[in-house]
Structures are given as structure tokens and as C-alpha cells.
Amino acid sequence: MSGITTKELLEMVFHEDYEKLKGKKLRMTRVRVPGKEVCLAHVLNPSQACIYQNLGLHIGVHEGEDHTGDAVGMIRFTPWEAVVVAADVAMKSADVQIGFMDRFCGSLILTGGLTEVQTAVEEVVRFFSEVLGFKTCAIHRS
């Protein structure tokens, strides 16, 4: 609806009632209704510790463990609560760990071997597309 004026919008929304409402104070509220969508699916194979440190993925690592070089899978969802289902699907489909999960923003970060992370991300995107009817994006890899 680019290029529409306030008057045109009000006429469209209120149809016949627009004439009765002219001159009165109206309160307009915008509400974002998220669709069913996987809007980011990316797999990267980092080779440097700074990637893990900047993502906060080194927190909670047991002494002597070094996950440098592990792959990272990042997936973003709307509605945001879908991330819980995605984490379950990912954990059941491959040997990956949850690096980060945010059910309030819909972000999921998976870590593990490159093949495992790739498999988990692919399965999550497939499940959301074929089983749940979500609009999905292509999986990118770097």
C-alpha cells in the first residue's frame, strides 16, 4: 500500500462510516501479526574461536573442551514460539547441541560437526515446510 494517503486509508477501512467519523478523533493502532515462516536458515563452518566467543557459545564449556571449528547453524522463525519445536526436531534428527534458543525472538543456534549441523538444519526446514505448512527460505552455507 505504498503511496496511500491517510484519507484514502480511512475511506478504505471505514467505507460508509467514514463520513460520520470525519472531524472526530480517531486512534489508529498498528499490529504486526507474524506469519508462519522460516526466514533465515544458514550453516557456517567457523575456524576461529572469536566466532564462538562473540556469539557467546563458549560459555559453559567444560575445561579442556574446545569447540573451535565446530559448525554453527542459525535458524529464525515466526511465530517465535516455533523455535521450541525446531529445537526438538533438530535434536532428534542429528547429533547437535543447542548453542542458543530464544522463544521470544524466534532464534535458534545449533552447534556440532558440519555434516550433523547441515542435516539438522535441513530437517528443520523440511519439517516446517512439509508438515507444518510454513513458508521457508533456502538454506545457505558458508
TrEMBL record:
Q: Which GO terms describe its cellular component?
A: bacterial microcompartment
Question: Which segments constitute the Bacterial microcompartment domain?
Answer: 70-142
Q: Which InterPro entries match?
A: BMC_dom (IPR000249), CcmK-like_sf (IPR037233), EutS/PduU/CutR (IPR009307)
Question: Where in or outside the cell?
Answer: Bacterial microcompartment
List the Gene3D superfamilies hit by this protein, alphabetically. 3.30.70.1710
Keyword list, A-Z = Bacterial microcompartment
Predominant location category: other
> Coiled-coil regions in this chain?
none
SUPFAM superfamilies the UniProt entry points to: CcmK-like
Q: Name one Pfam family in it.
A: BMC
Q: What is this protein called?
A: BMC domain-containing protein
